[in-house]
Amino acid sequence: MGRSPCCDKNGVMKGPWTPEEDLKLTQYIQMHGPGNWRTLPKNAGLQRCGKSCRLRWSNYLRPDIKRGRFSFEEEESIIQLHSVLGNKWSAIAARLPGRTDNEIKNYWNTHIRKRLLRMGIDPVTHAPRLDLLDLQICPVICPIAAAATVAVRILALIQFYRRLCLARLI
Description:
This protein has 8 helices and no strands. By secondary structure, it is mainly alpha-helical.
């Protein structure tokens, strides 16, 4: 009844991967390609389940994975794609070569989302929200409005955001 589990929990390793396991997985995939993930562990001589092998390969071992800091262009692309696609991280990752869906999701939640909130921008709708506006950073974002009243600062921030949105469309 239904599909059998991907692994019979007996004898299956859990926890961190060893360098030897990484090497076995990499060598097997280089020779045979990433075929059937359910049978791969046994064929490669690994004591892991297929899902674990698939995730290890796609998130860490793939040779085309880009490591390191996100560029300004990548960050702008993530913001633009998120405004269109929402939290569909794999769809966003498909448009950013070398970045994994998990890496993009983590970067969004730890960096971009928080920055948008501080700027008074709703990270879900990408629209200005005056109740989120941190007036302490407004002078940094809008130096012209640094000495102005709160209302003028808010107006300057909205104009700044509009220019930012228009720049993304061009």
